[in-house]
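Worked problem 6 (solution included).
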Amino acid sequence: MRKAEQLRIAGQLPSPKGVALAIMEICRREDATLDAVARVAQADPALSSRLLRQANSAAQGGRAVASVRDAVLRLGMSGVCQLAMGFSFIDQYASGPCRAFDYMEFWSHSLLMAVCCQELCRVVRVGAPDELFACGLLARIGELALASAYAEEYAAILDTRSTGAALLAIERARLETDHAEITAVILADCGMPKALAEPLSFHEAPETAGFVDGSRPFQLTHLFFQARRMADLGRASEVERHNKLAELMRLGGQIGLDAETFGALFDRAIEQWQNWGELLKIPATPLPSFDSMVKAPAPRPEQDPGMACKTTVLLVEDEPTSRLMTEAALRNQLGCTVYTAENGRAGLALAVQVMPQIVISDWLMPEMDGLELCRALRATEWGQSMYVIMVTGVETEDKVTEAFEAGVDDYIVKPLSNRALHARMRAALHYVRLLEAWENDRAQLKQFAAELAISNRRLEHAAMTDVLTGLPNRRAGMLALEKAWSVSLRSGQPVAVLMIDVDHFKSVNDRYGHAVGDLVLKEIAQAIQAAARRHDNVSRIGGEEFLLVCQEADPRTALVVAERLRRLIKALQLDFGGATIGETVSIGVAVREAGFADVDALVHGADTALYAAKNAGRDRVCLYSQGKTHCPNDV
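Solution. The predicted structure is:
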């Protein structure tokens, strides 16, 4: 048995209590009603006010609700259950036993992720905003559970400052489970639908989920990932915020939001976060607008960048005393990682191994002097970006010119003082930071270009796809027909066109509503796709009309395909909301023949046959051939 399941059975995982537990139990019953949920929710004034606020927030400027019953009706049973569950956890775990776990910081971040999920959902539209709000609120509940069940052990894990995959690995190694697994168990135990819980469990690393690109689970996983990154930005320091902005704008671009629109969305989320924070007594720090954060200059680090620089330095010096003193200053006063060599040849070999960011070399040395070392480094691709400081006892104009011509970036005159070393290192570290920032920007640009190419392919696919049925749209259908026409001209093989129209479809919309009408069209589209041969092309060309292009189909074959399709759709019994709907189609068929000059003429022939089928009583197939229509009587 998995450790997470053992904790659940032992009652060591967080669970709803009080009114939230009662609501959850009602929702599990087959005879559950919204009225019953509303009656229980009204017993808790705090929960009532929170449900009212969420219901009115979800209304997006629509009619405000004033009663708990109306709020429950608007949010739905599943939404109320999940929200009650999340609010119950906040009330229970405002503090806890784990010394290294900041409970209020945890809930502040979770609350911001919740409102970001809600705002993103209004753009992506892959679920109910209130349900996604609850998902964001509970996305990290596994971390809270581990902090509560293993207070001391988890404090030690948090002391490692690990995040992401590294944190999960340490949790598994020390606790035999991890917070992602615990989150999944808690959500399942509390009745979170699998359709939401499964994408949520992969939100920290969407690339590991394996969901089909563009599917609803895929979109949900990436929505949760983006909401998490937005929440990270809201709780970050000024320096961290500056580093996260580029990634956030890139993620916004993936869902079609420019910087201005995404900024407005983020600002709305921050406003909602602060309002919720005031209601739930959770800290929500005011932030500048997204636009002002983007336009703000890069902030200076709070600490002197010369201290604790974490920079790799290669020190090449043949005189032992000078080498030891300089190494100590670099290591102890500036916090650098220092490697040493006693001559240029040894220094070059060591540079290949450790790839230092800064090289400090004496000029006059045996075997290979400092200038030869610098020239050798500059001759390699990897050595061109190193910052080279030359240490010399001579400061004549000719010597300085010779050093710079050899590729030296700076020099220090002997005897070497700590003050001069610090000054030169400050300039070197500034160069290293700029180089790192440039390389990071270049990597981001490469990633952005790759993702832009993917986005363009998705947009191209979307431009050729009918949104309702998922079939190719009119543009794609006509391109497929033109391609089939060209193949037919070259090979001499026939090509047929079937124009398909759903009979009396307007009456379906009038009687059952457009939502049911859309569902009927989806079912018929699937039936047409299923009836088509493997190499045929099906598209929706508008309204209730579909186009089927049949390659290598003579008139007899095309009529057989059309008749099979007509019978298949007529046999469908479409059940929507207790109402059984039967539908029929009329089909016009045309095959390329000498009388057709181009694609448009072929389509016109099929269209003429379609009208003949409708005029003959509908629910039948007609063929256009030799300028005439033929409607067999046995259809």
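Discussion: The two ends are 62 Å apart (CA to CA).
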